[in-house]
Structures are given as structure tokens and as C-alpha cells.
Amino acid sequence: MAIDTKKCVGCSDCVVACQTENDVPIGHCRDWVVEVMDGTYPQLEIELRSERCNHCKNSPCVRCCPTGASHYSDGGIVLVTKNECIGCSACITSCPYDARYVHPDGYVDKCTFCLHRVKKGMQPACVAVCPTKCMYFGDLDDPGSEVSEVLKKRKYKTLIPEAGTKPQLYFLI
Amino acid sequence: MREEIIVSGRNNPLIDPQLHVWHWEIPTYLFLGGLAAGVMFFAALYYLRGRENDYRTAVKLAPMIAPIALALGLIALFLDLHHKLYFWRLYTTIRLESPMSWGAWTLMIVTPVSIIWSALHIKELFPNWDWKFDFAKELIGFFEKNKKVLAWIMLISSAILGIYTGILFSAFNARPLWNTSIMGPLFLASGLSAGSAVVIWMSKNHAERKRFAQLDLMIIGIELFLIIHMFMGFLASTQVQIDAVNLFLGGPYTASFWGFVVILGMIVPAILEGLELKGYKIPVAIPVVLVLFGSVMLRFIISNAGQASRWLY
């Protein structure tokens, strides 16, 4: 997924869409919007980022899971199998992005890139609802996909690449 | 100036505003596991060296607290799980990359070994003990015959258990304070120190107490050496690790770490044990309680401070 920090206006529609689509329990969220303010008034610069699980290629959460509940699905999306998760929270402590939380039912929950929608050929809820169309979702292995195209043209960064997790959320800058 | 805030609001319980997902359960288990590893290690070591009659407490009596400590530790671990009814999933798979999987399987070996070892010596504590059933007597006879093999298994598995209590933390790169391989040896040393302290406390034999006081002094020396190296390593590392270790160097955990763990838990008992070895009369309970207290505090403080340490973000 690529997210255009220049187009994002920080409206948090993605957060609400996710909560609605995925029945995220009240008081929890799988995605959130970060505002970074640089400089001193009147020379200010704002960067807005819609953040979620980075679906890392080298996921510490998958590595440390003692039961294999955290796993890579086909295509690289990082998922948790509810009835294999024991709720030990090792994955939560292992995530440098704090992208996971304990669901009130006991298992650990996180962004799934709305795999249930993607399988039907739809976009993830956050991408579909974005009023500024600042998010691009698709197959990074397919050089012709929209997300691959935009990453060819634009400068981008990933979050804390030095943590070595190979994050797969690309922020266009 | 840079200011970074979550503007959409995020208040995930146990995560925000700062990770606090592991409470008393994990450090309590790590202490009890370390303690069990300590007493079992010395029991196996001195049995294999043929000193079971010289060091009767260490070989025969002290290991009896291991199954109790492990049982209490397992209860704490179970309480920590959020999806409790699925705990058996730990034993339907072996995940070599996951320290917690290693820990679960190590416990699967260590716990029965600790129970068998205690059963073999139960007559030391209750001279009139009777196994009643023939199969139980046969089983005890079988383990009695293979005691040497059992001792080797106990020696190795208890060392793995002791190291694992630290590796559990060090495997998390997301929490810079934990992310040092020194945690393994440090927690093993702390567990061995707690184990030898318990032997000193339980033993009535002067020679045995002297030997374990010497051992404990040496282990405390090793612990201090490891702690110094931990700080050197962190301070020579990247900014995230410098920030992490600053939690102990002026940050919110400074007083508790140096006061409770290093001074009260290591230096003071080391001085008292040293004085005792020189012939001064010191109530044995004081250094022992301090060592155990330091061992508990080490785990609580490392667990809490580690969750407070994070990447620049």
C-alpha cells in the first residue's frame, strides 16, 4: 500500500471506515492518523500519515508467535488466526509500530488489509472511503499495478526501516 | 522543532499512551522460573560431581521447591494469557524462531524432571513416606537406576530455562532496552544467585553454607560485570538504545534500578556474605532475602522499563 502524505488531509475517514467495516470494538482502532509538525511559527510544515500495520516482509510478530497464529497469507498480508492465538501478547511487544491490540474476546487483532474485501476484488475499506484518494492499494509484485506505478514515479519513505522489519506501507513524500 | 501526535485519536487498551501489556505475571514467572532453574542446576551439578552427601541440602532438599515454584510460575503465565482456553495451542506446534515456544517446550521437560527429582528424595524430608502402589515403587526404582541421565537432563534443561527467562526479552527488537543478548546470561546469573541464596537459607551444614556463599559472591560479581557491559554496549550503540538505557541513567527507573537491584539486591548482600565468610556473625536471612528481593526487582524493572522504551517515532 502507498499513501500520499501530500494529499492526506487528516480527516480520519479511514479510521471510521475501518472500525465500521471490521466491527472493531469501541475504544480500539486498527488504523490511525499521525500529524507531524515541523518548524516554528510561521514557518511550519505538516505531514499527515494514515498509519496501520505495515505488513512487514520480515515480521517480528510472525517470528515470535509461539503457536503460529500470526502468519503470512498468500500475497504477504500478515494475519492472525483467532482460534490459534493464545493472547500471550508477544506479538504486541514485538511490533515497533504498536499496530496490534488485544481484542476484548481475548485474541490479538490487527489490520488485515480487508482481505475479505480484496478477495472479492474490492479495495480495503480505508482506501475505498478516502475522500482525497490518497491511498493506493495493490500487488507490489505486479509491475503494472497502480501501487507499483506510483512508487516508480514518486519519492517515498517507510517507517523505521532501521528496525529491519521490511515494512510494506510506503509513504509518498 | 518537531511535534508528532496521533490526531485521529488512538487509545488501544494496554498499548496507549505507552505499552503496558505485561504486568506482574511475566516478571513473577521469570523470577520463579529462574529460581527453579538455579536450585535444579546446582542439584544436578553437585550430584554429578558426587557431592550429594557433602551438599545434602543443595542436591536433595532445595530442589523440592522447584516444582512448587514452577507450578506457581505456570499459574502466573496462564493468568497472563488473554485467550486462556486456547493455551494448548502452544503444544500443537514447535516454532524454532519463537522464544516463547522454546520456553513452553522447555517447561514441558523441566517440570516433570523437577517433580521426579523431588520424588526421588522425598524420604529425606518425610522418612516414613510410603509409595503405596507397586507401579509407583517400580517407577521410582527406574529413575533411581537412571539418576545420572536424569541429572544430565536436569543440568542442561535448567540452564536453558535460566537463559530463556532473559532471551524472552532480548528477542524483541521493538523494545530497545530488552534488545541485548546480555539479558540471557544476566537472567541466568540472577536465577543461579537466587538458587544459591535459597540453599544457604535451607542448609544447616556450615561447609555447605560456606561453599554456596562463595558461589553466590562469585555470581553476584558476574552479574555486576554483565550489568556494566550492558550499559557499555547500550551507550556505544544507536540513539534508540542510548535513549533506552537513559531510563536507568537519570530517567524514571534510575532510583529503583540502582537502589533496589544493584545496591540492595547485589552489593549489600555481597558485602554481608563476604563478612560472614570472614567470620562475622550475620543472620543468614538478611543477605538471602536481599538477593531474592534483588532478583525479583531485576525482572520487574527490566519488564516495565523495557515496555517504556521504543523507537524514535
From TrEMBL, chain B:
It is found in: Cell membrane. InterPro entries: Electron_transfer_protein, NrfD-like. Signal peptide: none annotated. It comes from the Bacteria. Keywords: Cell membrane, Membrane, Transmembrane, Transmembrane helix. The chain crosses the membrane at residues 29-49, 61-82, 102-122, 149-170, 182-203, 215-235, 255-272, 284-302. It is a multi-pass membrane protein. Belongs to the NrfD family. This is Nitrite reductase. It comes from Labilibaculum manganireducens.
